[in-house]
Amino acid sequence: MKMKRLGALMLAGLMAISLTGCxxxxxxxxxxxxxxIATDKTYPPFEMENDQGKLIGxxxxxxxxxxKDQKFKIKINSLGFDAACTALxxxxxxxxxxxxxxxxxxxxxxxxxxxxxxxxxxxxxKKDSGIKSYDDLKGKTVVAKTSTAGLAYAQKIKDKYGFNxxxxxxxxxxxxxxxxxxxxxxxxxxxxxxxxxxxxxLDFDTPCGNENPAYYGFAVLKGENADLLKKFNKGLxxxxxxxxxxxxxxxxx
Length: 253
Ligand code: GLN
What we know:
By secondary structure, this protein is an alpha/beta fold. It has 9 helices and 13 strands. The strands form 4 sheets. Strands 7, 8, 9, 10, 11 and 12 form a 6-stranded mixed β-sheet that branches. The protein has a 3-stranded parallel β-sheet with strand order 4-1-5. The protein has a two-stranded antiparallel sheet with strand order 2-3. Glutamine (GLN) is lined by residues 40, 43, 81, 98-101, 119, 145, 148-149, 189.
């Protein structure tokens, strides 16, 4: 009887050990590695919340599908664009996917994946604003988002066209300023404006077309995380081959 109880206890103990053993080995060593991925807040159609509060969008679907394909885990931190870059530089994130434009300047600080989406910058104005060209911006207030390609473009043409430039943290704030009339125009990525106009989220026009054509890439800190970059590129190539990449893009057209 005594022996039996001891046996049962030992068995329970062994089971507990093997259970915890199982748990800990899945978060380290031989099994899947977890990477922290920083992203923007609301940046449709690349990152946005659905009705259930889940982050969806081209970037979110891509990184999840790539992680699955390449057998790694991810933790997504939705921080805002500038904050995502800061987190990467501070070592608080392993990678950034945030509708991030590949530029020569950024290549000094980051290593980029293969390009995965075509982009550029457009001026967004309210439909009834009467702003038809950059000349119409003279003496007016224009808004752009900190650290972005849109801001860089606005800064470049600001003096030539004589407008005041205001800088905000998030695209949502930028659109609110244009909607309320605090600013007459914003400079934002063309695919974002086009998508939000199409879905009816913005009653805007893009009268001047696409400037600075470029591409989005996934970024890691320069010289760091070559492994993650390699996995991203491999996964992306696989998704392109197996049709998943096209499916993801089609979902958000
Ligand atoms: N594509 C732009 C850039 O890289 C904006 C990115 C964003 O706001 N998420 O600067």
